[in-house]
Amino acid sequence: MAEEVLASSTSARLDQYVLLSKSAKGAACVQLIQDVLAAPGVYVFSELLETPSVLELATNPAHEPYVSLLKLFAYGTYQDYKSNSANLPTLNEAQLKKLKHLSLVTLSGQNRTLGYDALLQYLDIPNVRELEDLVIDAIYQDLIRGKLDQKKHCLEVEYAMGRDLRPEEETRLLAVLGTWSRTSENMLQTIETNINNISQWTAHEAQEKDEHEKQLELMKKEVKKDGLDRHRPNMGGDGPSDFGDENGRRRLNKGRAMFPSRR
């Protein structure tokens, strides 16, 4: 969320320079570039690079170094400037500080733990106090988030803002996103297939369970009916008499004992 707010804020601040570029030609456009590179809160530049005035400026050998400088602020770092400073305009204090801020953003995106010694050397800063001031200022502007560990002499990075993409990086990113999209689509299809299989299996199991319960209920009724038939008294003459079973014989003998026969 914070990254979206920052991107929106710095883009809005760039808008005024994009509008001014429509009427700025030649030396006026050069001055516009100088101003935007020093302007507070402006850290993205690709939209300005795409304006007709800047594109036209790039065709003039006298003005082309300023377009190269603008590209360096969009994509590069302080070390890129240092290695090619002979072919680029000199930076003022505000521009130099901004470029070091942007370099810190790039380094923070590459490594979540940045040692003081490496930062001092990369950014050409003479002492730790100035380095910590630069980092604190970057954190204050929400370019990065993290904490300075003075005991371990390092910066622990939690977040770094996104920078402009080089044209070739845009192509690569689009290819990566295309691959991710296709992979995601295949995964969704696989998940959908699995869900359908599970649904079919669940329906089949429910049907078998229902049939089993019906069979079980039918068996219970048959067992109950059979039990009733077994225990129902036989009142007809065709079946076995009461005297035909063990209990009947006992009652007959008992009756004979109570009423002995007379001789």
UniProtKB/TrEMBL annotation:
UniProt key word Secreted: no
Biased composition (Basic and acidic residues): 223-232
Keyword Ribosomal protein: no
Disordered: annotated segments: 223-263
InterPro entries attached to this UniProt entry: COPS7/eIF3m (IPR045237), PCI_dom (IPR000717)
Pfam families tied to this protein: CSN7_HB_subdom, PCI
Domain of life assignment: Eukaryota
PROSITE patterns with a match to the protein in the record: PCI (PS50250)
GO-annotated cellular components: COP9 signalosome
Domain PCI: 1-162
Keywords recorded for this protein, A-Z: Signalosome
UniProt-listed PANTHER family: COP9 SIGNALOSOME COMPLEX SUBUNIT 7, COP9 SIGNALOSOME COMPLEX SUBUNIT 7/DENDRITIC CELL PROTEIN GA17
Family to which this protein belongs: Belongs to the CSN7/EIF3M family. CSN7 subfamily.
Name this protein carries in UniProt: PCI domain-containing protein
